[in-house]
Amino acid sequence: MVQIKFMQKIQNYINGELVEPISKTYIDNYNPSIGEVYSLIPDSDEQDVELATKAAKAAFPKWSKTPKDDRSRILQKLAQLIEDNLDRLAEAESRDNGKPLSLAKRVDIPRAASNFNFYATGILHYASESHAMEDTAINYTLREPIGVCGCISPWNLPLYLFTWKIAPALAAGNTVVAKPSEVTPFTAYLLSELCVEAGLPNGVLNIVHGLGHKVGTAITKHTDIPVISFTGGTVTGAEIIKIAGPMFKKMSLELGGKNPNIIFDDCDFDKALKTTMHSSFANQGQICLCGSRIFVKRGIYEKFKIAFVEKTKKLKVGNPFDTDTNLGAVVSQPHMEKVLSYVKLAQEEGGTVLTGGHQVHLDGELQNGYYIAPTIIEGLTFDCRTNQEEIFGPVVTIMPFDTEEEVLMMANSTKYGLASTVWTQDVTKAHNVASKLHSGIVWVNCWLLRDLRTPFGGVKNSGVGREGGFNAFEFFTEPKNVCIKL
Ligand code: NAD
């Protein structure tokens, strides 16, 4: 007998209601840990974006004039509901994305709650400038919400990055049409249920699910959406600029990376090694901030390499729901194939795979899941494709260097410039190297240590603009200078 599985249908969230897409068509949503479809995503199009935008536009006058204390209270309630639903949300995130449940519980979902708390309270402290001209005049700057903001996010940290955009936009008094990644839509859907429970007024936040070239493009080109906040790949960012640029939309683009880890011989060896394990393989290497090119001072290169390979071999690739799993599944079959194609390319370019380099086949119901062994490659030149292009998986390269100048040249050689990590006990060297690195973020003797007040973003092809702290409020508001002659 053929067993018919119940497929949960995700719904759009438009004008305060959970609704079907107008076309009534759906696309498959996979659980990457078992390689099977387990729910259905609305295949929305510009008609759904139109409805969502109308709702957001209608809600804007009231929401933008709602006292910030009231907006803050509603958003803090939403944060509380996320905390109350930690287990349910973390399980959904792990099932949808393939990431270890322990990671979703420790990082993704708590951070989604923090995003709302941080911006809900941040707006209470946000003040604008005043410039006095002695006895002549006084200038003051109004910071006004702009209108309907389009927020588009990727699959690697689904709820974490989705809320990182929505929270400041709403706190500042805007309304939002948001699109989560079609690869990992589930927690955004659960968030819409929580928005209803939190009493967020209808139309203030609208979530439209579906494909990038349909929903994403419809948001990007909508004339009633003057602001686009996007996180995703550099190629997609360029497509957005092509449409939104000539429309003079305000844009914040957080894009790809190819981040260097620079390990000097005067580092705290054990700390550098332990943290490099995380920065290489956390979330299966699918964090835009992961260090994928590891440069080690020649004097400690062999020692570091041997210890790094040994530790990596001990990592457990397994069921994301098991508490001792270090790496779960990568997000999709096409992504797994892309990552493995880079291992092949690295070998063609003369690299040697020190460990990993292959798909991992697990047993039982996990046999069709998308698992990759954590991989370390050496013997490549800094300028080969493997060392220049973003792989975005559990694959890193390791290379020796001799001088500070040489390592800075190699670190800065890619078209990206998101984050860098530097390991040294010498403060002067740390300052010097940090100042010369072409990247928006430099971590010294740590990685992914985040203070939400700090500017977040990249240079070169890693992005345009900064998120985080008051930078986000500056982006999501329009300054207006008023000059009064005395
Ligand atoms: P992606 O660019 O394929 O998709 C991101 C989002 O954009 C998705 O919601 C997608 O549906 C949508 N989209 C796709 N095509 C679109 C179009 N033409 N117009 C509008 N929207 C469109 O990226 P991804 O594969 O989901 O995520 C991985 C990438 O994101 C990596 O390059 C990674 O480095 C980057 N990333 C960057 C940061 C950062 O903060 N800089 C953070 C996380 C991920």
Task: Describe what this molecule looks like in 3D.
With about 475 residues, this protein is of the alpha/beta class. The protein has two domains: about 10-255 and about 460-485, Aldehyde Dehydrogenase, Chain A, domain 1; about 260-450, Aldehyde Dehydrogenase, Chain A, domain 2. About 40% of the residues lie in helices and about 20% in strands. It is built from 14 helices and 23 strands. A seven-stranded mixed β-sheet has the order 15-18-19-14-13-20-21, sandwiched between helices. Strands 10-9-8-11-12-22 form a six-stranded mixed β-sheet, with helices on both faces. Strands 1-5-4 form a three-stranded mixed β-sheet, covered by helices on one side. Helix 4 (about 100-125) runs parallel beside helix 5 (about 160-170). The longest helix has 25 residues, at about 100-125. It is globular. Nicotinamide-adenine-dinucleotide binds next to helix 7 and helix 8.
Strand order of the largest sheet: 15-18-19-14-13-20-21
The stretches of 5 or more residues where confidence is low (pLDDT under 50) are none
Second-tier CATH architecture of the largest domain: 3-Layer(aba) Sandwich
Question: Between the first and last Cα atoms, what is the distance in angstroms?
Answer: 86 Å
For CATH, the homologous superfamily of the largest domain is named as Aldehyde Dehydrogenase, Chain A, domain 1
Q: Can you give the helix content as a percent range?
A: 25-40%
Q: Quote the average pLDDT.
A: 97
CATH class of the largest domain: Alpha Beta
Alpha-carbon Rg, integer: 23 Å
Ligand kinds: nicotinamide-adenine-dinucleotide
Strand percentage: 15-25%
Query: Shape, please?
Result: globular
Number of self-contained structural domains? 2
Largest sheet features: 7 strands, mixed
Tally of helical runs: 14
